[in-house]
Automatic annotation (TrEMBL):
SUPFAM superfamilies noted in UniProt: Glyceraldehyde-3-phosphate dehydrogenase-like, C-terminal domain (SSF55347), NAD(P)-binding Rossmann-fold domains (SSF51735)
Gene Ontology molecular-function annotations: 4-hydroxy-tetrahydrodipicolinate reductase; NAD binding; NADP binding; oxidoreductase activity, acting on CH or CH2 groups, NAD or NADP as acceptor
Enzyme class: oxidoreductase
GO cellular component: cytosol
EC number: 1.17.1.8
Protein residues bound to (S)-2,3,4,5-tetrahydrodipicolinate: H136, G145, T146
Residue numbers binding NADP(+): R35
Biological processes, Gene Ontology terms: diaminopimelate biosynthetic process; lysine biosynthetic process via diaminopimelate
Primary gene name: dapB
Listed name of the protein: 4-hydroxy-tetrahydrodipicolinate reductase
Cellular location(s): Cytoplasm
């Protein structure tokens, strides 16, 4: 399959390597410096686009793909206020759009464990939940997209929490779930859910050792999305 890489930084380069090792061809490698190359590409040269750019570039990239009828897989975080509009545009154009805050299979297992733990803790008093995420210093958005998905998983399954907020310190007895973001090199991505009480703490942690899991997941999803129409997420792709 011919894959267009929209964004060719840390993620785009690794995705390109994995895609080629799986027998795919790279139709283009688009960065902030060569966007004009998109004008030369026609839709029959691209089977699917994999979009890992930056928050300010993502929406324009999606619109370009949807106009051209090219299925798009995106992992870019920090643009979610526009998500309802992009999903609507996908339906209007009869296109294909797949977004995940995290393409790693391990993190998606962690999302399910987080939801199950929140259900258990909903039946238990005296604990305050907080989320901590740690990433490399080049990361532009905070909190991470993954931390937002984790917060949504707790809010949907624990009556004490109605919303989340980004803060420098964890705070007690709030209906708003506190998320703290730390930027420490070279962390590819660590997420900690902590339930604190006076008696004890319960913690679950996912630590990415590299970007390999994110990149492989994005290529597997692109293979899956190629011949599908509609708006999809990891819940559609995974069997658990
Ligand atoms: N969903 C997931 O599993 C994961 C998501 N991410 C997200 O993916 C995104 C990219 O991450 P990295 O590759 O580490 O970033 P990076 O900074 O290494 O690369 C970004 C790429 O986007 C390009 N770019 C930036 N502004 C642009 C513009 N205006 N037009 C076109 N291209 C533009 C840059 O030239 C570069 O090629 C981030 O939003 C990050 O949070 C990262 C890892 C996993
Ligand atoms: O910017 C990153 O690097 C990552 N971003 C994603 C996020 O915001 O959750 C996924 C992963 O944690 C790495």
């Amino acid at each position: 399959m011919n894959i267009l890489l929209l964004g060719y930084g840390k993620m785009g380069q690794l995705i390109g390597e994995i895609a080629e090792s799986r027998g795919h061809q790279i139709a283009g490698k688009i960065t902030i410096d060569n966007r004009d190359e998109l004008d030369l590409l026609s839709s029959d040269q691209v089977d699917v686009a994999i979009e890992f750019s930056q928050p300010e570039a993502a929406v324009e990239n999606f619109e370009w793909c949807l106009e051209k009828g090219i299925p798009v897989v995106s992992g870019t975080t920090g643009w979610l206020s526009e998500k309802p509009r992009i999903e609507q545009l996908t339906r209007e154009k009869n296109g294909s759009f797949f977004y995940a805050s995290n393409f790693s299979i391990g993190v998606n297992v962690f999302f399910k464990v987080n939801q199950f733990l929140a259900k258990l803790m909903n039946e238990t008093s005296g604990y305050q939940a907080t989320i901590e995420e740690i990433h490399h210093t080049a990361k532009k958005d905070a909190p991470s997209g993954t931390a937002i998905t984790l917060a949504e998983g707790i809010i949907q399954n624990h009556q004490a929490y109605e919303k989340w907020h980004l803060t420098e310190e964890s705070s007690e007895n709030e209906q708003s779930l506190a998320i703290t973001s730390k930027r420490i090199d070279p962390a590819p991505g660590t997420h900690i859910i902590r339930y604190h009480s006076e008696i004890d703490d319960i913690e679950i942690t996912h630590t990415a050792h590299s970007r390999q899991g994110f990149a492989l997941g994005a290529v597997l999803v692109a293979e899956w999305l190629k011949d599908r129409k509609g708006v999809y997420s990891m819940d559609d792709f995974l069997s658990f």
